Amino acid sequence: MIRIVGLVAAALLATTSCASAQPNLILTGEGVEAFREAGALPPLMQRALDAATRRVEASIQAGPIVPEPVDPGGGYSHERHKENYKIIHDAGLLFQLTGERRYLEHAETYLLAYADMYGDLPLHPERRNQAPGRLFWQSLNEAVWLVYSIQGYDAIRAELSDASRDRIEAALFRPMAEFLSTESPQTFQRIHNHGTWAAAAVGMTGYALDDPALVERALFGLELDGEAGFLAQLDQLFSPDGYYTEGPYYQRYALMPFVLFGQAVQNNEPERGIFEHRDGILLEAILSTIHQSYAGRFFPINDAIREKGLDTVEVVYGVAAAYSLTGDTGLLSIADQQGATVLTGDGLAVATDLDAGMASPFAFDTRLLRDGPDGNQGGLAILRMGAGELAQTLVAKHTGQGMGHGHFDKLSLILYDGGQEILTDYGAARFLNVPSKDGGRYLPENSSWARQTIAHNTVVLNETSHHGGDWRRAQESWPSIALFEQRDGVNVVSASISDAYPDATLTRTTFQLQSENTASPLILDVFDVVADEPSQIDLPTYFAGQLTDFDIAFERFGSQQTALGAGNGYQHLWVEAQSEIAADRARFTWLTENRFYTYHALVSEPFEARIVRTGANDPDFNLRTQQGILLRVPSAESARFISVFEPHGRYDPAQEITVASESGIDEIRSVEGETATLIQIVFNSGQRLSVGLAHDLHAGAHTINADGHRYEWTGAYNIFGE
């Protein structure tokens, strides 16, 4: 249930229309009044105000700088125009909050300079195959420019002369709104984050210019039929749980236009009930974005820049909006972690209540975020066990493709423990806004490596990526989640997919298990592959840390290495070491920061092992170094990989102390029954943790005899402590 509090409640009680008093977008008249009544500002808000003041004061000293658009992302003109929209935004808001006209005049000067330039601009010279802009190499950046700048203009519009107002609107804002909508239908009508930004930009311009036609266009699309536009974006891009189909990195990016335009609609036309749309999907989107993080950083699935996290400006705006809607004091702890808030009434409420000591821990928990508009296209399973935001967290990516930004990594895993990423995901091959790295665009290796299946912790058949590496084909497919459950000491998820490869079914069942024999929970992972024909089956596992021990004999390739394969990402992996056909099991231990991790592997078929590392066939040194362990079944119609990931021990280099660097597990066993499998984890102490897992998750009764014990249960699985 959404509870409307604070300034949003005041907006709901007001009778507003497109002609409401300005400012009327995100900072409203009520927000300005709250600032004026606040007296001394709380520290978080004072910090935001000081940062805006520094930016604008420095700009006033330097004078307006509006270069000709010539550079791609990261280049001088690109970055200058980005800085300028922040200056226009901040200057307008500072005028409202301080009443100092020199801030108004500075914003006005910039806007008039852009009005003089914009009408004569051709398409950007650095445009590639993206939808081009005029100020920027892609129209996406143009929409972002407008979203920010229109807020600054909204804050000064009522105080401008008629001549300045007419010039800015006729030569800048209206042409830009048309360029982003009627002149760019391929973007504006697209159900995609680029379309969301464009819709928000045009709609917010409509409210600021008192133009209902622009607002309707933004909400319902160019044809006004609801097949495109902001509401269609809300309906089609989010699942009922608030999961954004492209994954958390793009959910974070898309969150900004959704939140800002949503607030603009609420503040101008509360009767539309935008925050009640789809049972409050905007709020669910904000909260699910926060849940898709660990230690302040987003899960790096799909085309993700790994360094992005909760401190990004989009989530700062989201936290302020969500707190206004719910009063959830857990959000204040996120704001405290961000160390920032926004210059709005909602931001002031966050800063005030945080300063009053009202924050409580945010409720990170185990949850399944379903994918797809109807929640029936797989999902992202987040398994958490332990206390606080650094609780051990397993991310099972059983989602849909994620459109063109999706990777071919069905049923992949990421593991976090002790504040570190243990089993890693590569994310994107991209250096955002670094001119020397192709202007900050996605690099060629994003397609040849990062998106390919071998770059992820999941099974690869015959050195070919899932769905043949065709995202449009993959977009029509998703895993089926047969089991997701949380109970005391156990989290479990199981999913399968039957068309990642022709005539093959992949099934992965993953347990997070509390054990009195280990300091942190154990991960038990069972990956089944069933194919119609003999196939080469590879299971890579990428880890963060330094290998310290292993129990199989390797041939090392220290002086001359070769690539693992010729294509589909295999060409980018050096083979550093290789084993002969192993028995049925292997063990590897590595050290991550101050904790050891042992990977126990039990494989149903004879297998080989390789130690691999990224960097092969990388002429421009675009790939980050990533080490992995690859288990290969050379040829089989079916195979089962049973993996146990065991945290243990402690390493303290300052005190020169090493404790329990060796695994506490003696053996992993698997016993087959008629309807189920029993997997036994035998500890050095002699104690056992046994997991009964039904074939096909059959819910009936199961019995297995092993080592003189009789194991009986009913249902998909059961845990036996011995």
Automatic annotation (TrEMBL):
<dbReference type="InterPro" id="IPR012480">
    <property type="entry name" value="Hepar_II_III_C"/>
</dbReference>
<feature type="domain" description="Heparinase II/III-like C-terminal">
    <location>
        <begin position="369"/>
        <end position="637"/>
    </location>
</feature>
<dbReference type="InterPro" id="IPR008929">
    <property type="entry name" value="Chondroitin_lyas"/>
</dbReference>
<dbReference type="Pfam" id="PF05426">
    <property type="entry name" value="Alginate_lyase"/>
</dbReference>
<dbReference type="GO" id="GO:0042597">
    <property type="term" value="C:periplasmic space"/>
</dbReference>
<dbReference type="GO" id="GO:0016829">
    <property type="term" value="F:lyase activity"/>
</dbReference>
<dbReference type="InterPro" id="IPR008397">
    <property type="entry name" value="Alginate_lyase_dom"/>
</dbReference>
<feature type="signal peptide">
    <location>
        <begin position="1"/>
        <end position="21"/>
    </location>
</feature>
<feature type="domain" description="Alginate lyase">
    <location>
        <begin position="86"/>
        <end position="270"/>
    </location>
</feature>
<keyword id="KW-0574">Periplasm</keyword>
<keyword id="KW-0456">Lyase</keyword>
<dbReference type="Pfam" id="PF07940">
    <property type="entry name" value="Hepar_II_III_C"/>
</dbReference>
<keyword id="KW-0732">Signal</keyword>
<protein>
    <submittedName>
        <fullName>Heparinase II/III family protein</fullName>
    </submittedName>
</protein>
